[in-house]
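Each field is set out as follows.
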Amino acid sequence: MRATIVVCLIAVISYAVAENCGPLGGNVRCGGKNCCSRFGWCGATDAHCDPATCNKQFSAPASSCASQATNPLPSDSPFKVPNIDVCGGSSGIHCPGAGQDSYFYRCCSVNGHCGPKNDIQQQELYCGAGCQGAFGNCDTNRPRPASPTGPAKVVGAGGNCGPIVNTRCADGLCCSGSNFCGTGVDYCGAANWCQAKWGRCD
């Protein structure tokens, strides 16, 4: 009986001194050689330091998690619109980053979407409160890239458009917030971040 009480007491003390980290723990970085787990706890166990899920941005610099690549997986081409939108713990998908300096599609929002997707969305929508640092970056002060230089290409319906690919939609088509050309409210409406610089908007 006494041994059981001692074990329980040790477990409670260990839990009480465990350090919160990352977006779930007040954006605190772990100290020593501790990794920040996907659940927001510091530690050096395999569960804390799992390279597939640990939060590199909030792990200690000397930890095995932080010593891995600190950026999310690169996209196939930095100037190609990624084929993903969902990210985070429910899907296990990392945001790849795209465009100049991987500014676009770099943060995994609290709702599990990669962004910002275009140059009219504020980065705080994706990189701010609740951003999932284990599945992308969570920096809200990265400078917005300069507008693309050189003549823009033109594509038809279903093609990629916007600043990542320096491409406009053909006449009569809208460039959606997700960087695709088309018509209708999903492409042309302000609520869906229609990009007037890259096509028509209603």
